């Protein structure tokens, strides 16, 4: 046992993955109970309305933090590989300078045009109050995510794990507290309460992140770099970030279009608008989150893979990259097969029991075959980004989303939700194949590899 513990401590990728996975599992458990709670608190139609803003929330994060978080993780890891702590911290400050500026603009536009976005983009005016809460959370989310990226570059996952748990707990507490207060006083409340929970949780995580940075500076006795050095780091960050951010913007726009078109396609299939929204809410608010519960493991691995791959790539250590790639493929595939078996039969009845909804159970069973491809594609995409090949992920992801959109436009109106399931499975299979093709250099053994 002592030998096993010492071996885990000696391998920061394994230790970090374990810490993040445990935190992720606990966080998802809290989130899962929150979904059950909200499923009883709100109607299926209201949950469907809230799920319509999920792509918009993701788009705001992509614009302000997602690409920059990846850049910080990669650039700072390269500095740490050269034992340059000051350079690593300067990379973070450059990213914060860019991210906060973009966040302020995104917040203003989303808040000011919330009614227009809800009506013309999401085709649902009742989304407007949720959009305003989400808009206010954008700067907090940006700062929090960039500090997490800095921690990942050091292969230290304790703080991101803690902040992730804090965020989820506060979100649950705010929703439960306000809802119980309203119920006691016979006051009305609506689904925008869920967006308020996100705002409060992100603000708290941001405050804690700033405190962590202050302690890091004191502990390592790092002096703040000059403003000119912070500005000097922006061009390199921008060159790394723009293809990744553009990729994710296109991805989120396509996902947002998909979110708006799925209920419309179900209406063309024959469902009334209220029932189409309810089915969309069951799919995205119950079945898919239940299916994605095990991604706490692959998600943690993906996050920590990127700096490890970046560090090995900076040292031109092709052998290590190959070993990590092959191990990840085996681990993600085995986990996916196991989860597929579980979700196909017992998961079906468990989802129906937990959400008190038979359709949620049926959708879980139908989507179970996605698991191996979902888990594997997340890890492979992280490896490609760690190698600095962000343009490749952009092209592949854009192609896959356009492929899915064809199913949404032409298959759902004819075959209903079964057509969407077929499109999802086909797209994920194709995504994995294209990612493996992009990594073919690291999938065979050569004695000449360093």
How are the secondary structure elements laid out?
Blueprint (H helix, E strand, L loop, with lengths): L1 H9 L1 H30 L2 H9 L1 H28 L3 H28 L1 H8 L6 H26 L4 H27 L7 H29 L6 H6 L1 H36 L3 H19 L3 H20 L3 H27 L1 H10 L2 H10 L3 H16 L3 H21 L1 H4 L1 H22 L12
Helix pairs in contact: 2-8, 2-12, 2-13, 3-12, 4-5, 4-7, 4-11, 4-13, 5-7, 6-7, 7-8, 7-9, 8-9, 11-12, 11-18, 12-16, 13-14, 13-17, 14-17, 15-16, 17-20, 18-20
Describe the protein's architecture and organization.
This protein has 450 residues and is mainly alpha-helical. The chain is 86% helix and 0% strand. The protein has 20 helices and no strands. Helix 12 (273-291) crosses helix 16 (358-367). The two termini are 32 Å apart. Mean pLDDT is 82; it is low at 1-5 and 446-450.
User: What portion of the residues fall into strands of 2 or more residues?
Assistant: under 5%
Please trace the helix and strand order, writing H or E for each element: HHHHHHHHHHHHHHHHHHHH
Distance between the termini: 32 Å
So how many helices? 20
Oligomeric nature of the chains: single chain
Query: Radius of gyration, rounded?
Result: 22 Å
The count of strands amounts to 0
The chain-level structural class is mainly alpha
Low-confidence stretches: 1-5, 446-450
Shape type = globular
Largest sheet, in brief, is: none
- State the helicity in percent bands: over 70%
